[in-house]
């Protein structure tokens, strides 16, 4: 299948995606190609169904996640997101990340830290929201080198968010 | 003269031949079989009108095994040879089993302690797969009598939280019982289907499934007939049995000495405990007695004794909600499944946590089998295919061991299946030509905390400096939740593949051997059977292709159409008197020549679905 993920769902190639439209298109397509539709079909059809259905799942999970979607959009525009250039990341950003991480590590390991974690989470989410908008603007203007720099920053922020959340989980004893 | 067949106008299926398909709930305590009878799906009873088949098998010397209620008496009389709750043994080692349950009244073949647990009975050594197969056979026979014909396909349910080994062994048991498995279906998903089909509901549903030996929580979103599992969690070693053990422990602690042989005492204790537990679902307190000892147990006390078990289940609910990024208020319905949800302690705790009364209007013992029966009817093609669709997830993360005994997750838990994911690895030493892989399943960072699924090696890597080789490892999980893994060195194309078989299980050879053994006395039967199986497979393929051609003949160039016709004719001719090997070879050939046609049909299907999608969007704007 040569269609890219956006074309597969017949959606515009942009990071500001209508998630509801994506979900509707996904369910529609999956209703056609899922292996359950081929339970009594020939082996070659069964095999194809597994492949198509897997591809759809991969496409859906990529476009559903804001960060993965951003990365995919860059890759589609021939940007190598695997390589991080020293110049891509400002000293300022790195220092800020180190500070935030230290803050996270120094919080007490019990439930008393939950309020601080919550406020830290809000800060990070706000920052993420703003930078995602910037990313969207850059890609909208087809300024992909700039978008790549913002993308790496988004990676940092999402990683941090995940760490805050797992910190919450540990303290809530999930 | 034979009547001419006329195709239904506009229908995608060429003919509506009703095929016999059943749903089987292979439970820890009880098993059921359900099938579509004149429109609605019903549980099939035995000749006495009983629906539940106790999952108990009693092996006897020189006589066929007793299965179900006939075997029940043996639990006390003949505890060593009467096997119950065997589902808890699937995919586990003997050592694991013994740490989980000290009330096991069986003799084990200790020499096999690190492989599959082997139980010594008067009828020889029995494996959990064989015991499960005996239960499946009994259910299949019941269904064939009820439906008056051989079964074309079955859907067997498994706990959503079953790992790969447990799923493989369930499939192996079905194979041993001679069943054609259309799909392994997760129990909670089956329950959602049973509840969800009549109502055109939309929303989020939590399925709380506490059975005899396993516990599952699944969170599903239902939209326009598509059931999408958002997250699932659970414990394959937590169930109603554990509530029995708690009471048995409580009794044992108050007994002064044990007089009889330990097996019998354990079995008796468990029976008393089980009866008391059931009574407590109706009464505020219950009187227990054993020999000259007697005491009463109140509901309140029982709640205290089982507090840990109950809070474990609620914790799992929290975990699942968090995985799906939803909160308690987002949940529209809670469905209770499994006999153990009859316990008031459990119902109350669930209602309190979700702040909502759970649904209990379908019998919690039957709801899974009904859902499986509905799905079987759809999969075999008796129902219109677009009626509903189930999108399930893999319950546990799958990964590879890397340096330092760490786990690199390739497919995280709650990923929608089927799925294919690949990751690249490299060599550690200069000139390294062999790489060994260890496939594991679980959520922890360390290999030792995860379950080992398989080990395999990739040989013939061209010698290079360390870190230069690129080895791509691909994981594929199919719609049954079963994993296969392949590794390939990218510069040379050297390949290694493994269909993951449980480390604590039986390899393919052992299954073949067991199949062989079960037909030992009748070699001819064996060949007759495999011919019959091959013939069924061949007829299915021929009818699938005829179907496809009646709809999409336009996609077939004349030469290709001719090649397919020849292959169909050859296969049909072989059905008259050929052996199973020849039939299989011709099936292969037909699959091969029709492969391109199938691919074009699939592309067209996608294009059509997209077109339909675009029209919808235009209308709604």
TrEMBL record, chain A:
Domain of life: Bacteria
Sorted UniProt keywords: Chaperone
Keyword Chaperone found: yes
Pfam family, one: HSCB_C
Domain J: 4-76
Family the UniProt entry places it in: Belongs to the HscB family.
Subunit structure comment from the entry: Interacts with HscA and stimulates its ATPase activity.
Listed name of the protein: Co-chaperone protein HscB homolog
Natural source organism: SAR86 cluster bacterium
The gene coding this protein: hscB
UniProtKB/TrEMBL annotation, chain B:
Coiled coil: none
GO BP terms, alphabetized: iron-sulfur cluster assembly
Superkingdom of the source species: Bacteria
GO molecular function terms attached to this record: ATP binding; ATP hydrolysis activity; ATP-dependent protein folding chaperone; unfolded protein binding
Keyword Nucleotide-binding: yes
Assigned protein family: Belongs to the heat shock protein 70 family.
Gene label: hscA
Name used for this protein in its record: Chaperone protein HscA homolog
InterPro entries: ATPase_NBD (IPR043129), Heat_shock_70_CS (IPR018181), HSP70_C_sf (IPR029048), HSP70_peptide-bd_sf (IPR029047), Hsp_70_fam (IPR013126), ISC_FeS_clus_asmbl_HscA (IPR010236)
Protein role: Chaperone involved in the maturation of iron-sulfur cluster-containing proteins. Has a low intrinsic ATPase activity which is markedly stimulated by HscB.
Transmembrane feature ranges: none
